[in-house]
Amino acid sequence: MAVERRQPALARAANAMMRALGGSAIKLRIPVASIGGTQRELGIVPAVFQEAEVAPVIVRETITSADKKVGATEAEIEVLISSTTLDGVMPGFGATDGRAFLNGAEQVVYAGQVFVITEVSEDRFAGVAYMYHVTAVAKSK
Question: Distance of CA 102 to CAs 64, 72, 108, 138, Å?
Fold first, then answer.
């Protein structure tokens, strides 16, 4: 059980914003320890993931571009996650640091589409992270 803690005003405001703006849900795919090395890198041994549902979050579609030469499109999203929301998910994975937890995730599933995480950042105030930004890209043909 998570220990109750007093949250700064910005953490409470970020959480309220997530709920007020419609609060979507995503799934984070976190790799499970498996065979490493060259076989996994070459795709011979598939990666095994454990999924964590995270809600409420805000998902912003930032870019969609097309490569006409190969007929592929690329979509990019930014996911905003309040620290309070992440605090409810991390204990199930034995994690205590939000940024490290998100850096350990490889993919985001949103609206049935799989996005690969490319960047994780956080907003801090008075030494406390109150919101995380996860940028992810999906390619499709």
Answer: 23, 27, 10, 17
Within a domain: 4? no
Where does residue 130 rank: exposed (0-12), middle (13-18), buried (19+ CB within 10 A)?
Answer: buried
Can you give the pTM of this predicted structure? 0.77
For 62, the domain range is 9-140
Note the pLDDT tens digit of each residue in 88-134: 899 988 899 999 999 999 999 999 999 999 999 999 887 888 899 99
Is 115 domain-assigned? Answer: yes
What type of residue sits at position 29? R
Bridge partners, 48 (sequence order): none
